[in-house]
Amino acid sequence: MSIQLERITINPAICLGQPTIRGMRITVSVILKLLGNGQSIESVLAIYPELEAEDVRQAMLYAAWMVSEQLYLARVA
Question: CATH number of the domain that 33 lies in?
Fold first, then answer.
């Protein structure tokens, strides 16, 4: 399965290299924490009006991909 994560960017000069959305200073982890604390996608978009629904979707997809990669590496080790 090929995933498209063109909205997730990593730049050492922005947010200490944490994954961000489209180079903005909004990290994937901030979005995930909001969702994990019960905020809806609509609430996240209201809090950060510069975001789009696809940004939030890709943040969730990135997290799922990272977790699956960690599980794969744990099995190999």
Answer: 1.10.10.10
Predicted TM-score (pTM) of the model is 0.83
Residue 15 lies in a domain: yes
pLDDT digits (tens, 9 = 90+) for 33-43: 999 999 999 99
Would 2 be classed as within a structural domain?
no
Q: Is residue 65 part of a domain?
A: yes
* CB 59 within 8 Å of CB 28: yes
